[in-house]
Amino acid sequence: MITDEHIKTFIYQAHRYGDAKLMLCSSGNLSWRIGDKALISGTGSWVPTLSKEKVSICDIASGKPENGIKPSMESTFHLGIMRSRPDVNVVLHFQSEYATTVACMKNKPKNFNVTAELPCHTGKDIAIIPYFRPGSPELAKSVIDAMKEHDSVLLTNHGQVVCGKDFDEVFEKAMFFEMACRIIIHSRMEYDVLTPTEIEDLEVYVLGKISK
């Protein structure tokens, strides 16, 4: 059951992401799984100043809004990710300054692992998909397909999408995504990345994984 506390928490997190300059005005959208329902920022809403009147409650299976508030036009990929990824509870589509600049570059980086934070938190591989019209079925399908194997996606000439188990994890992924792109741009494309061996070393000793 969706409660007022759920909605207050969702609004607080939306404002938190906005305060971090992950999106401007009506750019970007946010969703949160609660049982078999999802809270989604509404069509035309400004996530940085989201209000209760702009929070849509949707059935994840059918995609239908249940409180009369139309969800974001990108709700198709939010709900699609949740259907295909039971481990994902939060999805954020954002357009931060440096990451969106990279999304618009002709020669995009093929490797974003400029610091340890990227493979440790954002994902050692960031999917890059071509441009599709915002809100289109083609965009939704491409994002859903990419998110089956990734937690972070760069949308050409559009923005970024990250997903995770909770609000903190998603915030961390988005912030480190933006940090990596800021480093890449400030380096004027003259940057080093971690080697596969260095990333494996992180997996064993920083993340506590056992290499097999």
TrEMBL record:
Keywords: Lyase, Metal-binding. This is Aldolase. It comes from the Bacteria. GO terms for biological process: pentose catabolic process. InterPro entries: Aldolase_class_II_sugar_metab, Aldolase_II/adducin_N, Aldolase_II/adducin_N_sf. Pfam families: Aldolase_II. GO terms for molecular function: aldehyde-lyase activity; metal ion binding. Residues 8-185 form the Class II aldolase/adducin N-terminal domain. One of its GO terms (cellular component) is cytosol.
